[in-house]
Amino acid sequence: MGMTITEKILAAHSDKETVEPGEFIDARVDRLMVHDGGWSTLGVFEQIGADRVWDRDRLVLCPDHSIPPNNISSANQIKDERDFARKHKITHFIEMGRGGIAHAVMVEEGLILPGELGIATDSHTCTYGGVGAFSAGTGSTDAAAVMALGTIWLKVPPSIKFVYHGRLPDGVYGKDLILYTIGQIGVDGARYQAMEFTGEAITALPMSGRFTMANMAIEAGAKNGIVPPDATTIGYANARADRSFTPYQSDPDARYAAVYEWDVSKLRPQVAFPFSPGNVRPIDDAGEVTIDQAFLGSCTNGWVDDLRVAANLLKGKKVNPNVRLLVIPATQKVYGEAMREGLLDILLEAGGAICTPNCGPCPGRHMGILGDNERCISTSNRNFVGRMGPRSSEVYLASPAVVAASAIKGRLASPEEVI
Amino acid sequence: MVITGKVWKFGDNIDTDRIAPGQYSTEATEVQAQHCLEGADPDFTKKAKPGDIIVAGKNFGCGSSRERAPQCIKDFGISAIVASYYSRIFTRSSINIGLPILECADAAEKINEGDTVEIDLDSGVIKDLTNGEVLMASQFPPFLQSLIQAGGLVNYTRKKLGKEPLAK
Ligand code: SF4
User: Fold this and answer.
1) S-S: A141 plus which of B3, B96, B132, B158, CB 3.0-4.6 Å?
2) In terms of residue numbers, what domain contains B37?
3) What does each C-alpha distance from A43 to A52, A315, B74 come to in angstroms?
4) Which domains does chain A have, with CATH numbers?
5) Is there a contact between A244 and A111 (Cβ–Cβ < 8 Å)?
6) A142 with B153: Cβ contact below 8 A
7) Tens-of-pLDDT digits for all 168 residues of chain B?
8) How far is the CA of A298 from the centre of ligand 1 (A)?
C-alpha cells in the first residue's frame, strides 16, 4: 500500500519504513520556531530543566506579533527572547528590521525546505506545507519539550486530497480557492487531518498562493496543509537552500480519507463573513456592506505578489474617504522589493498607511485595532468574534484584489468594479 | 479522582479568540484568567466559580495555538471541560498543562446549564446529579493516558532527560 507525502515525511523523521494514520510516533524536528506570542515557551523550558537547547542551529526565534513593541510587557517578552538567544548562542534570532512575520521569514529564508519537518508555537505553522514540508503548530509546552529533546510526539493524520481542475480565472487567487474550500467542508471539515492540495490550478499557482492555501489549512481544522513539490517548488527551494533536501510525492496508490474534486475555472472571488472563516460566499452575493478599514498584509497575504495585485488596482486611484487602508508587507525583503518596484509609491499615493513588517492588526494586539462596531475587510485568515478589536467589530476575509477594490469603493466590492 | 461542579454551557466552535481574547495577551496570568471566555460570554467570570465545569459542543478551542486558552481556563479554576471534541492544538496543550478535558458526544445534548455534574476522571463516567443522566467519556489512546499519568508534558520530558518530576 502506498503512502501520502505527509506519511512519507513522518516516516522518514521517525526512522520507519511506513506509518499508518492514527499511529503515534516520536518525530525528529528539523526546525522549531518560537515567536513572541510563544514567549512562555522559555519559562517552560526552564521548568523542564534541560541544560541546553537540543540544537542551536535548528531553533528560530523570531518576534513578530508585537514589533516594534507596543507596551512594556511586550518589550520585556521580546527582550527575554533576545537574552535567551544570546545565552544559548542561538544562530537564528531574527531581530525586527531583519525579518518580519516569522512564517514568511521561515520559507523566504529557506529555514524550512521541502521534505523537512517544522514545528512552531503558532497555529499557522501549516504555512510551510506550501514548500512541501510537514509543519504543524503547537502550544508553548510542546515547543519547550522540542527545545529540550529535538523530537515531538505526533499522531499520523489521515490525508484528504483536494484536486482543483482547470485554470483560475483572472482576478481569482489562491486565497479564493482556500476560502471556497473551507466554505465547502466547514471549519472542522479536515479536523486532525492532512490537506493535500493538487490539480491543474495548484500547478499554476505561484509560491505565494500556495503559502496562502497551506496557511489556512488550520481554519478547516487540519493538522497540516501540503502542496507536493513540483518544478516551481524546487526552483524556489534551490534559490534558498544551504543544505540538501528531499522532496516527497504521494504514491499513486496512497490512501485518502476523502477526495474532493472541483472545477475551479469559473470560480468567483470569495469573501468569508463574520464570524467564521467557513462563512464564505461569492463576492456577488455580498450585498451592500460598508467598511471602515481595509487591511493588506499578514502571513496569509503579505507577499510581494499580493501587494502587486493591490497596487495594480489602486494605481491612479484613491482610497475611499470613509476608509483607511493599512498595508503591512510580511517581511523586510517583501518591503524592499515592493519599494524598488514602485508598489509602495502607488499605495502611498492612493492614501494607504504603510507600516513596518509585523502581524499588524491581525491578532488584535497591535497596529490598527478596530473601534466599536467597525468593519474591516482583511487579507488575513481569521474573523472570529473580537479578533481585531471589540466584540462588536467585524472582520471580512478576502483576497488582496477584493480588499483593494473594497478600499476604493468603501464597501465590499469585486475587483472588476474598479478596473 | 472524582470532581463535582456546576455546569456552564457553550456551543460549537468556541475559538481561542473567544476563550482568550488577543487584547489581554500580554497581561499577567491572573488578569487573563479573569477574562477567560469573555468573547463567548462577557459575564462568564462574574457568574462562574472555581471548581465549576464547562460543557461544550463540537471543536472547542479551535483557532490559534495560544496556550493561554486552556491556561486561562485552568487558572480561573474550572475543574474540567466536557466537549463533543476539541481542536487538535487545544487537546495537546490541555493535556500538556494538566487541564482535565473529556470527550463525550452526548454531553452537550444531555446536560443542562446549571446542573450539578460529578465526573470520575479515571473511569470517564459523567453523572448529571440534577437530571440523573449517566454518560461515558471516550478513552484517550494509551500514549496520551501515559502522558496524563505522568502529570503532563513537562514531567514526561523531565523523565526522558533522567530528571525527577516536579511537584504538581
Ligand atoms: S499574521 Fe496573524 S495569523 Fe499570521 S502569525 Fe501573525 S497573528 Fe498569526
Assistant:
1) B96
2) 2-160
3) 14, 48, 18
4) 5-262 (3.30.499.10), 270-417 (3.30.499.10)
5) no
6) yes
7) 899 999 999 999 999 999 999 889 888 999 999 999 999 999 999 999 999 999 999 999 999 999 999 999 999 999 999 999 999 999 999 999 999 999 999 999 999 999 999 999 999 999 999 999 999 999 899 999 889 888 899 999 999 999 999 976
8) 6
